[in-house]
Amino acid sequence: MITMRGETMRYVTYAIVALLALVMMPATAFGQQAYEIGVSGALTGPAASTIAPAIQGLRLYVNRLNKEGGVHGHPIHLIIRDDGGQASNAAANAKQLLSDDHVALLINASLSSTYAPMMKMADRTRTPLLFAANAVCPSQAFPPAQRFVFCSSGISTKYDGRAAIAFIHDHASGPVRLGLVAMAIPVSRGGINHAAGAAKKMGMKIVQKEAIPPTTASYTSFATNIQDGKANWAYSWAPWVTEVKTFEALRQLGWNGSYAAVEQPVAENELKHLKDSKFYIVSSDSLFSEKLPIQKKMMRVATSANAKYPADEMTEGWIAGMVLKATLAKAGWPATRQKVLASMDTLKVAMHGLRGGPILWTKRNHFRTRQYYRVYHWNPSSGSIVRAQDWKAFVVK
Amino acid sequence: MQLLVNIVVLTATYALISCGYVLIYRVSRVLNLAHGALMMLGAYLLLSTALVFHGNPVLSLLMAAALSLVVGILVYVFLMHRMTGQSVLAAVLATIALSIMLRGGIALVWSAQSRQPIQHLGVSNPTIAILGAAHTSACSLLLVAVAGVVYALLFLFMRFSRWGLRMRAVGQAPLLAAQRGISIHGIYALAWALSAFTGAAAGVLLSLNSGLDSTMALVGLQAFPAALVGGLDSLGGALAGSLIVAVTEVLLIHYVDPLLSSAAPFLVLIVMLVIRPWGLFGTQEQLDRV
Questions:
Q1: Is A232 within a domain?
Q2: Are residues A255 and A165 in the same domain?
Q3: A220 to B136: CB separation less than 8 angstroms, yes or no
Q4: Nearest C-alpha of chain B: how many angstroms from A49?
Q5: I need a labelling partner for A50 at 20 to 30 A (CA). Which of A56, A137, A344, B130 fits?
Q6: Residue A117 to residue A114: CA distance in whole angstroms
Q7: Are residues A170 and A260 in the same domain?
Q8: By the CB < 8 Å criterion, does A43 face chain B?
Q9: Cβ <8 Å between B127 and A44
Q10: A341 shares a domain with A317
C-alpha cells in the first residue's frame, strides 16, 4: 500500500513537472516564430464600451490573418493586457511588454491618461508606439510628429471638431446658436475648445459650453443650461456616454434643436434606437449601413468566431489590424523594432471603403495626410440610417 | 420650475441609492463600498430578464427584483457572513474586493458594450410636461415615485413590523439581540437583500432612462456622501442628505460652473464633517464606531 502510494506520488510529480514545462515554454516554440506585438488597452473601466469591441476586432483580424499563413509565413502573436484606462497599469503593461515579452511594436488602445507613461517607455526603448482601436490620436502623431508615435485611429481632437462645425455651418438654416458638450476630462475639453475656435471663425454664437463629469447621476441639469441658452444646435466631442445621454436629456426637456456627435462604436445601434432625424453622427469611418464588401467580411468573421461584440463596433480594431499587416509586411522577417519603425515612417494602407481614403504616413506626419468625414443620421421616411453628407476631406498640416 | 424638477429627480436618485448604504450600516456597521456595483448588477439582471421575457416588462422587472434580493442574500452568505466577528475595516475591504469582482464579472458576462434595456422591455420613455413650465421623462417620474414608495415602506417596516424591530435591535445591541433569540445572521442577510434590492431599483430606473454601461458603478459612489451627510444610521437622514446634495449640485451647475458638479457632494460632506461630523440625523456614538 505504501509502495502504491509512493508510485502514485511519483507519477503525479512527473505530471506536474511536465505540465510546468509546458506552461513555461514559449508559445512560439510549438510552431513557427511569431511577430510579437504588445497591446495595452482599456478592456475594463469607463472607456471599455468603446475600446473593448475594437480590440476584439483587432484580435479577430489577426486570428484570421494567422489562419491564412500570417505575414511572410510567420504568425502575429498579440499580447493583450488590460490597463482599465489607468496610467499606472499602462506603465506596468508597457514595461512588461517591452522587457519580458520583447515586443517589436506597442499598441495603445486606452484613455489619454495612459499616453504619457507609454510614450516615455517607447521613447526610452526606441520602440514604435501605435495609437489605435478608438484611442484618440495624440498631438504627437500630427505634424511635426514625434519619432516613435503613430496613430491609425479615426479620432482627432482637432479635425473632428472642424468637420462637425463645417457640417453645421453648411446645413443650418439660419444663424447658429451653438451649445458645446464635453466630458470633464482634459482630452474632451481640448476637443471642444478646438470646435469652439472653429465655430467662432465661422461666425457661430456659442451660447453654452458644458463639461460634464463622468460620474454624474443626471444629465438633465447640464441639458437645462443648453436649453436655457436657447441653442438651436449642439455639438458633443466626448466619450459616447456623455454624447448620447446629454442628447437624450435635451430631448426629455422638450428641446427641438439639432445635435452633432462624433462617431463611436455604438453610434450605429444608437441611431437605430433613437430614430431622431436631427441627431447627426460625424464619422471618419463608414457605418455598416453602407454594406461594403469588407464590412460583410467582418460580419462573417465575427459570426463564425461567435464574437462578444457586433461587427459594426469593431471597425477601428479591424483598421488597426490592416495597418499592422501592412507594417509587418514592409518590415520583413525578423521584425526588429528598428525595422518596424522604418516601415512605419513611410506607409500607405488602403482602407477599402472603411474610410474616405488611405492612411498615409510620412516622416513628418504620423496621423495621415488627409482626414475624411461622412455624416449620418436617421431617415424616418425610409426607416434607415442615411448619409447627411458624403466624404469631405481635410488636409492635415 | 425646471430647476425644481431637476432637484426633485436628483434627490430621488440619490435617496434611492443612499438608503442601501444606510440599511447595511445601521444593522451591521459595515460601509458597503460595493453598493454601486450591486446597483449596476441589478440593472444588468434586468437586461437579462428583459431578453428572456421579451416584451413583458412587468414579468421582467419582477424577476430582476427577485434576483437582486437573491444576490443580496448570496453576498451575505458567501462573503460577509465570514466577516462576522472580524474588524469593521476587514469587512469594508471585503466590500471593495467584491466591487472589483462584480465589475470584472459584469464585463465578462454582459461585455462592456453600452446597452438599452428599455428596447428589450418594449416600452417607451416619453417626455412629460409638468404644469406647462418644465419637462421630464416618464422614467424620471417613475424614479421619484419609486423612491417615495420605498422610503415609505422602509419607514413602516422598520417602525412597525416585527422584523424591522429585530433589525433595529440587532443594530443597537447585537449580542443582546442574539441572547434574546433573534437570528443575527438572518437579520444581516435581510439587510443585504433589502440593500441590494433598493440599489437595483435605482440602477434599473437609471438604465431605463439613459442606458446602461460600466460607468453606473461610479454613480453609486457619487450618492455615498448623501448618506454620510444625513448620518449613516438614519433613513430620514439619507433623504435629507440627498436633498441637500442635490440642491447644491443643481444650483452649482446652473449658477456657478458645471465642472463643480462632481465635487458638490464632497463639498457638502466636508462642510458637514466640520460642523456636525456624525451627520444631520446620525448619533455621535455611531461616529466613534466608524
A1: yes
A2: yes
A3: yes
A4: 5
A5: A344
A6: 6
A7: yes
A8: yes
A9: no
A10: yes
CA dist., res. B158 & res. B142, Å (int) = 24
Nearest CA in chain A to B113: A49
Distance CA B168, CA B178 (A): 13
Please list every residue in chain A whose beta carbon sits closer than 8 Å to the beta carbon of residue B104: 44
Q: CA of B92, closest CA in chain A: separation in Å?
A: 21
Residue A397 pLDDT grade (very low, low, confident, very high; cuts 50, 70, 90): confident
Q: Fill in the amino acid letter for B204.
A: V
Q: pLDDT: is A27 or B247 the higher one?
A: B247
Among A343, A323, A332, smallest CA distance to A61 is for A323
Q: pLDDT confidence of A17, banded at 50, 70, 90?
A: low
Do residue B114 and residue A214 have CB atoms under 8 angstroms apart? no
pLDDT tens-place string over residues A20-57: 544 444 444 445 699 999 999 999 887 888 899 999 99
Percent of chain B whose pLDDT exceeds 90: 51
Helix (H, G, I), strand (E, B) or coil at A34: coil
For residue A35, tell me if it sits in a domain.
yes
Q: Name chain A contacts of B9, Cβ cutoff 8 Å.
A: 218, 220
Distance CA B237, CA A159 (A): 49
A252 and A390 fall within a common domain: yes
Measured between beta carbons, the chain B residues lying within 8 angstroms of A83 are none
Q: Name the grid cell of A143.
A: 505634424
Residues A183 and A239 in one domain: yes
Which residues of A fall within a CB distance of 8 Å from B221?
215
Range of the domain at A358: 29-156+290-366
A vs B, Cβ pairs < 8 A, gives 123
Indicate if the pLDDT at residue B289 is higher than 80: no
Domain positions in chain B:
2-215
Question: A243 to chain B: nearest residue by CA?
Answer: B210
Residue A121 falls within a domain, yes or no? yes
A269 and A384 part of one domain:
yes
The reply to whether ipTM tops 0.85 is: no
At residue A57's C-alpha, the angle toward residues A56 and A59, to 5°, is 60
**A214 contact B CB<8A:** yes
| Contact: A46, B218; criterion CB under 8 Å | yes
For residue A12, being part of any structural domain is answered with: no
For an interface test with A, give the residue of B7, B99, B253, B266 to mutate (most A CBs within 10 A). B253
Which one of A252, A256, A268 makes the best mutation probe of the B interface by having the most chain B beta carbons within 10 Å? A252
Minimum CA–CA partner of B102 in chain A:
A44
User: Are A387 and A267 contained in the same domain?
Assistant: yes
Q: List chain A residues with CB under 8 Å of B258.
A: 184, 210-212, 221-222, 225
Contact (CB<8Å) B112/A44? yes
Cα–Cα distance measured from residue A223 to residue A300, given in angstroms and rounded to the nearest whole number: 40
In A, minimum Cα distance to B101 occurs at A44
The CATH number for A84's domain is 3.40.50.2300
> Is the pTM for the entire model greater than 0.90?
no
**Structural domains counted in chain A:** 2
Contacts of residue A210, Cβ cutoff 8 Å, sequence gap at least 6: A179, A180, A181, A182, A222, A225, A226, A246, B258
Instruction: Looking at the structure, tell me whether residues A262 and A389 fall in a common domain.
Output: yes
